[in-house]
Design a protein that fits this description.
The complex is a heterodimer of chains A (304) and B (342). With 304 residues, chain A is mainly α. Helix content of chain A is 74%, strand content 0%. Classes of the chains: A mainly alpha (304), B mainly alpha (342).
């Protein structure tokens, strides 16, 4: 009698488990089984390719220049006069602006995590490892920071320092490090009490080595998950800023700006809202899928 | 008192012990509430301090671009005196704090002679109406969907609800608002040759409210539904629920009295973040639907660098969120007797 496919799968798992696989192999296997997460990862790779290749495509004349205005062909619907997804109020090509917009969204989403990581790590490690008064002060500080509504803070900072790319990166990073700091602190607090740390400490490991070799590697999973969920959050904040007209300034193409421009001319050309709106929504959805997949793969205890 | 002293010891022991227990709980509850209120003060203080500092870090003076021309030094000096900007910064900060305590948020820069308080007061009814309606939609719909999905776990209803929640949580509210306008105003306008299904902009107490309220409520509904589902699933697996089924109680009784009563306790904590959603959401929804509320006023103030208005709105919004969190924390203690007061 043939076994059902599921049972064979499970048997394969048992065999693998007997070989004592490491955390990363194990995580990769679990991630691979999550179809939505794999689909999400594929879509992100596709987006990254678009972001990198779009200037080349313009160079070789495959897509229009995103800044080139064509006053004879404004507010076109999809497919008209060689504009695959239509054109905007200045006759610029919607498709190529969408492709160039992905550069802004992706770089905000990913680079902001690069700013958050050192801040969150430093504060979380200091609070969790030192404990006592330092912990108390740092956590009260993060509590206060947390009380500040994200969007309002970013809007205030951008209004004060002007809407440059750097200000926007900084402002978004400044509201998003709190979650990571709290997570790292919690991780350190729980790992600190484990026997292997005690063993390392009693065999004379200096604090720095203890942190780098034991505390950090053991909290890496949750940190990666938090950073992944931070990506859609940052993309969202940048898009809102652009939509409200205080983000990265025109003529640079950003998705939020495109939704706003399209919305202004929504009766003449409804699709000019729909395309960038879909781009934003599905990009955020994609990163959420990846985050869910990574969470299930790297941190099975967090699973609901 | 002889009567009490003469009471049998055994009988006296239990009630008095119970009484002292509840007394000490009431006492610690009072201390807890006072502590939480006192904690709110530094939070609001620091929000004001941070915003105030940011405003004063701004390069240039607020009069640099006044009406697009360069103002003479005398005019600038007079403006500075009028708005109190000639004083040292720490004195300005102190004066501002004193005024805020008296609900005086200063004069707006962009509207000549208007106080920030009057601007906020004129926008307040719009923001409050839409926020309140959204709240009234979020609680029943979010909780209802969550409970339904959990009770029928892995059914079609569960998948649809959770799929919807994932989508709703990923689509920013300005995107949702704009797409709804396309679907329910623009396309119906074109299809019917001049009839809106729903109006796309403005404020009135009729179908103008439908799209703004849904746009505002969608994300919190998704959030509440997810949390309710998770918490209900936790409860369903508890021993006392199995016992309730085993004693042969009706489904209604088990669900309402045993499952819901316990699974809704953690959902109360989401009401704090829900208020934060509503407050920051108002900024976006009022912009999308051209509603003259506080959120819209905030965006206009940001665009025209009307610092007193920005400061006033930020303070107001943070106070609302802080108070909402305070109320939720205190309510939680009343609802869940297991909560430790610290």
């Amino acid at each position: 009698m043939a076994l059902p496919a599921v049972a064979i799968d499970q048997m394969a798992d048992w065999e693998v488990a007997e070989k004592q696989i490491g955390l990363w192999t194990d995580a990769w296997q679990r991630f691979r089984r999550n179809r939505l997460a794999v689909l999400g990862a594929g879509l992100v790779i596709f987006l990254v390719l678009i972001a990198f290749l779009s200037p080349l495509l313009v160079h070789f004349g495959i897509i229009h220049d995103p800044l080139k205005q064509d006053v004879a062909n404004i507010e076109l619907g999809p497919g008209q006069a060689g504009f695959l997804l239509g054109s905007d109020q200045l006759g610029r090509d919607t498709l190529s602006r969408l492709m160039f917009g992905s550069r802004i969204s992706l770089s905000v989403g990913i680079l902001v995590q690069g700013i958050i990581l050192p801040i969150g790590l430093a504060i979380g490690l200091a609070a969790g490892y030192a404990g006592g008064r330092i912990d108390n002060i740092l956590m009260r500080f993060t509590d206060i920071w947390y009380a500040f509504p994200d969007l309002l803070f970013v809007l205030v900072v951008v209004s004060v320092f002007g809407p440059s790319l750097l200000t926007i990166f900084g402002a978004i990073a400044m509201v998003n490090w709190v979650g990571l700091a709290r997570l790292v602190r919690g991780q350190v607090l729980s790992i600190k009490e484990k026997e292997f740390i005690e063993a390392a400490r009693s065999s004379g490991s200096p604090p720095l080595k203890l942190i780098v070799k034991h505390l950090l590697p053991n909290s890496l999973g949750p940190i990666i998950v938090t950073l992944t969920f931070g990506i859609p959050q940052a993309i969202f904040l940048e898009a809102v800023l652009s939509f409200l007209g205080v983000g990265i300034q025109p003529p640079t193409a950003t998705w939020g700006q495109m939704v706003f421009d399209g919305y202004e001319a929504v009766y003449a050309n409804p699709t000019s809202v729909v395309f960038p709106a879909i781009a934003i929504g599905f990009t955020l959805l994609t990163f959420t899928f990846i985050g869910d997949g990574l969470r299930d793969a790297l941190d099975p205890r967090m699973r609901r | 008192m002889a009567v009490i002293a003469g009471r049998p010891k055994r009988g006296a022991l239990l009630p008095s012990r119970v009484a002292s227990l509840t007394d000490s709980r009431a006492g610690s509850l009072a201390i807890f509430i006072v502590k939480r209120i006192l904690w709110m003060l530094p939070v609001v203080f620091f929000v004001i301090l941070i915003t105030f500092t940011l405003m004063h870090l701004a390069p240039g003076s607020p009069w640099d671009k006044s009406g697009g021309r360069q103002l003479s030094q005398t005019v600038v000096n007079n403006l500075n005196i009028r708005y109190g900007l000639d004083k040292p910064v720490y004195e300005q900060f102190w004066l501002y704090l004193v005024n805020v305590v008296h609900f005086d948020f200063g004069l707006s820069y962009q509207y000549e002679g208007k106080t920030v308080t009057s601007l906020i007061a004129s926008g307040w009814p719009y923001t409050a109406t839409i926020g309140l309606l959204a709240f009234l939609l979020i609680v029943p719909v979010g909780i209802g969907l969550g409970v339904l999905a959990a009770l029928r776990q892995n059914s079609r209803i569960d998948y649809i609800t959770m799929g919807f929640a994932t989508f709703a949580a990923s689509f920013p509210n300005f995107v949702v608002g704009a797409l709804m306008v396309v679907a329910f105003s623009v396309l119906t306008y074109k299809a019917t040759g001049g009839n809106f299904f729903l109006p796309a902009a403005g404020f009135a107490l009729d179908d103008h409210l439908v799209m703004p309220v849904i746009t505002l409520a969608l994300l919190p509904i998704a959030y509440t539904a997810r949390l309710t589902r998770a918490s209900t699933l936790d409860t369903i697996r508890q021993d006392f629920v199995r016992t309730a089924w085993a004693k042969g109680l009706s489904e209604r009784l088990v669900v309402v009295r045993h499952i819901l009563k316990n699974s809704l306790i953690p959902v109360v904590t989401t009401l704090g973040p829900t208020f934060a959603f509503l407050v920051t959401g108002s900024v976006i929804v009022e912009t999308v639907f051209s509603i003259p509320g506080i959120g819209r006023a905030f965006v206009v103030a940001i665009e025209s660098r009307d610092y007193p208005m920005i400061l006033g709105t930020t303070v107001l919004f943070s106070v609302i969120i802080a108070v909402a969190n305070l109320v939720v924390d205190v309510a939680y203690v009343f609802i869940d007797p297991r909560v430790r007061l610290t």
